[in-house]
Amino acid sequence: MQQLVKDLIQGNRRAAARLISLIENDDPQKRELLKDIYPHTGRAYVVGVTGAPGAGKSSLVDCLLQKMREDGLKVGVIGVDPTSPFSGGAILGDRIRMQEHALDQDVFIRSMGTRGSLGGLARATREAIQVLDAFGKDVILIETVGVGQSEVDIVKTADTTMVILTPAGGDSVQTIKAGIMEIADLFVINKADLPGSERTVTEINLMLDMKESDRWRPPVQPTITTRGEGIKELWDALQEHRRFMEESGQLMEIRRDRVRRELTEQVEYLVKNSIWNRVKEEISLDNLVENIVLREKDPYSAAHDVLAEINFFSESGKVSE
Questions:
Q1: What pLDDT, in 10s, does the model give residues 249-305?
Q2: Are residues 145 and 181 in the same domain?
Q3: Does one domain contain both 197 and 284?
Q4: Fewer Cβ neighbours under 10 Å: the N or C end of the chain?
Q5: Domain check: are 198 and 103 in the same one?
Q6: Which secondary structure element, helix H or strand E, spans residue 109, and what is its range?
Q7: Pair 230, 294 in one domain
Q8: What's the domain count of the chain?
Q9: DSSP letter at 113?
């Protein structure tokens, strides 16, 4: 496995694909692999692309990818798709619209299934980002599945977040209800050749004017991906936001918060797994469930008794800290 990591650092595409697969499948050696990869990360800039289904996220990513390659950047793309109920894989796994880049050695495109994960992101997305970072990608684009309110999860992963809207999406006030106004660093009004695009741009700008902020004001960029219009301006806006984040120190701030959150989540994950492994070994949950169903026991007392049974509590009767 160490050879696999060495091959990744040296730019081996097969090693990158293999490592992401191992991570997705929760391989027993996953933690050791990530530990070896981590010192080689921290250089890539991560851009999240989110918005409702049908907004044209994949087409926009394809156009941006082309623009980044023209600037000589090495790019990774992770497309998070709905999981197939039959195979467990990503339904849109082929990313058909991006296949023209398949032979480009400096582009790596990978689809990942959500596998039941909330927030529009696959469970292993963050680990996959680390793999592509160590693989030497300058920019990593994360295209989310597009599920509305839970899309806010992308802000925990990306350095810059783009929210894609369309004129056909209805009143822009609905955007606020979807909970994505607060996470956008850039707004993109895609399919701007449709009726109502100017009104949508105006509405979004009016909403932004109502927000008092001494930080970054998200630009609103119309695009027409079928014609390649507005893509250069969008790429310029992305680079401007990155400069702002770096010069203001906010990039390090959000990355520090991300590391703190990841550390907390990892500790919680290990503690939960450890507790449940002990519970499964020492207690018959089926009998306990049956007692609760028959109302012979309540779930609150039962949960307390389960933890007491595995000596989770201190002598004082409180949860051990």
A1: 999 999 999 999 889 988 998 888 889 888 888 888 898 999 999 999 999 999 998
A2: yes
A3: no
A4: C
A5: yes
A6: strand 107-113
A7: no
A8: 2
A9: E
Domain end residue (candidates: 221, 248, 275): 248
201-220: pLDDT as tens digits: 888 888 888 776 668 899 99
User: Is residue 182 located within the same domain as residue 270?
Assistant: no
279: exposed, middle or buried (C-beta count within 10 Å: 0-12, 13-18, 19+)? middle
In a domain, 15, yes or no: no
- Would you list the DSSP string of 186-218? EEEE-STTSTTHHHHHHHHHHHHHTS--SS---
Q: Whole-angstrom Cα distance, residue 192 to residue 190? A: 5
* CA pair distance 249, 268, nearest whole angstrom: 29
Mutual orientation of helices 285-293 and 299-309 as an angle, nearest 10°?
160
What range does the domain containing 265 cover?
258-309
Give the amino acid at 199.
Answer: R
Return d(Cα 151, Cα 120) in angstroms, integer. 5
- The predicted-structure confidence for 141-196, as pLDDT tens digits, reads as follows 999 876 554 466 777 889 999 999 888 655 555 555 456 677 889 999 999 998 98
Strand partners, 50: 163
CA distance 186 to 219: 5
Q: Which strands form 139-143's sheet, in the order they lie side by side?
A: 107-113, 75-81, 139-143, 45-51, 160-165, 186-189, 220-222
Assess contact for 164 and 60: CB atoms under 8 A: yes
- CB–CB of 47/141 below 8 Å? yes
- Cα–Cα distance between 275 and 268 in angstroms, integer? 11
Q: Are residues 85 and 46 in the same domain?
A: yes
Q: Where are the alpha helices (DSSP H) in the chain?
A: 2-9, 13-24, 30-37, 57-70, 125-134, 173-177, 197-209, 231-248, 250-282, 285-293, 299-309
105 and 236 in a common domain = yes
